[in-house]
Amino acid sequence: MAANVSTTPLDARTVERIRAVVVAFESATGLALPLRLPGGELLGPADAPYRVAVNEPWALRAVLRPPYDMRAGEAYVEGAIDLEGDVIALLGDVSRFAISPPPRAAMLAVGRRLLALPRPPRRAHPRRAQLRGRKHSKARDRAAISFHYDLPDTFYRQFLDSRMVYSCGYFAEPGTEDGRPAPGPDGVPGDIDRAQERKLDVICRKLRLEPGQRLLDIGCGWGSLLLHAAERYGVAGTGVTLSTTQKEAADRRIAEAGLTGKVEVRLLDYRDLDGEFDAVASVGMFEHVGPDRLEGYFAAAHRLTRRGGLFLNHGITLGDPERLGGQDSTFVSSYVFPDGGLAPAWRAVRELERAGFEALDVEQLRPHYALTLRHWVHRLEANRAAAVAASSEADYRIWRTYMAGSAVSFEQGSIGVIQVLGSKGATPPLGRSWMLPAF
């Protein structure tokens, strides 16, 4: 749970010191902080689409010091601050400050004013990941996946679509004048349920699934792709996951769909899987593998794909071709994705080809994920009470900021998401019409 926070108005001296911080910060960054102090006093622009509620006299001292994303994230999770209004707009403004830091001298002036505020208390952070063992060993990977996915599936239902698809949708509704999908029923552009159904179908079309074939889904989540492929394309499906709660939920869904015996989900590391499959998909698993393990990951996919089969990898990539992600300790790596890591798109293509696949197609879905995340944030906020009841106030806050920050990253292009289609001797038709959305 978030920490208990102050509701008593601040004394005049502390308010003046906070005002001094706000003035210095705006002078240094050009960003005016819209604040709400305990007792209701407002500072900063009155018409801002968001506002930071300062719940403790030391909150700004905790938030405005490096590493900024970790400090600010923990202050929000603990309840020292609240984020009111459009959290995506807020994090978008903050990101511009992070991308182009102000001169050191200007920030030193901010720091001097911060030191006049009370010192933040030292606290343990029980929700922070504490993994043990060799990174990306099978035991540690299982612990990392459990940390991320083994929240109650009722929590995920508060923001995912009706099929429980935890990856970006594929939007194709008629556009408005600016080319974006028309607003859906929740006011966010597009229809998330339709977009996720379309994405599942695009994957099936790219894999050229036919009745009687065997499909493997590496990192199958709650079984959404397997169910869609079995119901619409008549295939037999096998999925693997390291999440106990995902397997239990997937088993229930398979039984409810009457597909027991045709679709199965195994609690198994993909590195321990044997056999060959007509088609292999991996959606949202790439990010968990780690940049240093991609060669073995694509080699395993090649081993599991029969001769004449197809493999599709759907994963988040870095927008900077010269960087690797996942090496630093950040709020996301500490509270959401321990041991995760990102690589630029060219690495996915290179490792696909090195494993022995022929690269048939690469599709960038970055704008689709930005829209998907806006839907998820809106739905989570709308279902806050149910999300907190399903898990905790801290988890609600962690996931709200994580998804809002991710939406900003996709919109700004610092990360993307690509689908790479590889062939192991398959000869699909010419052109791309056969893999385009059918609806």
Please report the number of helical segments: 17
Please mark out the parts with pLDDT under 50 across 5 or more consecutive residues, or reply none: none
Mean pLDDT: 93
Order of helices and strands: HEEEHHEHHHHHEHEHEEHHEHHEHHHE
Say which CATH homologous superfamily of the largest domain is assigned: Vaccinia Virus protein VP39
CATH architecture of the largest domain: 3-Layer(aba) Sandwich
Helix content: 40-55%
What's the structural domain tally? 2
At the first level of CATH, what is the class of the largest domain? Answer: Alpha Beta
Q: Looking across the biggest beta sheet, what order are the strands in?
A: 7-6-5-8-9-11-10
Distance between the termini: 43 Å
Mass-distribution shape: elongated
Number of strands: 11
CATH topology of the largest domain: Rossmann fold
Structural class, from helix and strand content?
Answer: alpha/beta
Content of β-strand:
15-25%
